[in-house]
Amino acid sequence: MINTKIYKAIYTLAEELLEADRRGNQEKFDSLYAELKAICTDNEDTDKDHPEQWETLADFTEDLDAALIIYDKALVKATEINSKDHLSSIAFSMAVLQLETGEKEAAIQSLQNAKISANKIEDKEFKVEIDEMLTKLLAE
After folding, report:
1. pTM score, whole prediction
2. CA 76 → CA 21, 22, 73, 86, 112, distances in Å?
3. Contact predicate 77/51, CB 8 Å
């Protein structure tokens, strides 16, 4: 379970990052991103470390290769706590980026992993989204 104070900070930063991006305010975005990154690094390898913070950081990382590295870190953290929700959402996000970077086989593998993890979650719409994307890729 993620620390409530950290969750609220991450959630607030995510909303502010989205707003800065929407407004095209790169300076504000960079400042907020630095705050989010600091939360992640400050909590790393402590009892407050959680895949949610790393997944959020990866979501807002503009460099796709760097984002994939951060998603990998989030995936390790999610595996450690066996969080099926995080395992499936991180793997799905990785697949989207892998497709953007031309790594179709890696994307298929990530989607297959997402599908396995999603088997134990309640979000039926997300399961369908994973299935549809995987089916489409396998058909190409």
Report:
1. 0.92
2. 28, 31, 5, 10, 17
3. yes
